[in-house]
Amino acid sequence: MALAGLEKLSNRERMLIGLGIIALLFLVADRVVVREIRNNLRRMSIEAGKTKERLGGSQKILAQRKDIEGQFSEIKGYVPPSGSNVVSEMSTEIEKLATDSGVSLLDRKEQPVVRMDFFDKHTVKAEMEGPTDSIMKFLQAIESSVHLLRVSRLEFTRVAKGGEKYGKGTIMIDKIVPKDVEK
User: Fold this and answer.
1) Burial (0-12, 13-18, 19+ Cβ within 10 Å), 128
2) Which CATH number is 82-178's, of 3.30.1380.10, 3.10.180.10, 3.30.70.60, 3.20.20.70?
């Protein structure tokens, strides 16, 4: 019935109606298809930019890999292998440093391990005596040890012993050990 009315229209009116329908179809296609594709392309472009930024950061890290591995190989000797007896190694190192410095260790006691999120703190308490100069060498040797020992507490008393500067005291020595270290 609607087509019957088209026959009465002139060619020019039919052409204008046809162009109108085509324009309407283009508008609908633009709203439904083209804008959706454009929005998807815009979203993908933003995601690609973000991914490119992350990739750039990853490439910077990869470029530093050899430097980082070199630094790690320099310091990995400081970290004890997993499963090793840290306190035993500490005690052996402390005894060696004391002997080399001329200090006598009278008693050594392991203190409870303090467990933190990323590391464990091992502590050894030791009674010591010796010439004052030797005790100073011992303290310096502890602080510069490759085992990263640290004096956390020192009680020191000077004692007269044959006219020589002599000392006696208690020392607390700590070692921080990171958890889950891979070698």
Assistant:
1) buried
2) 3.30.70.60
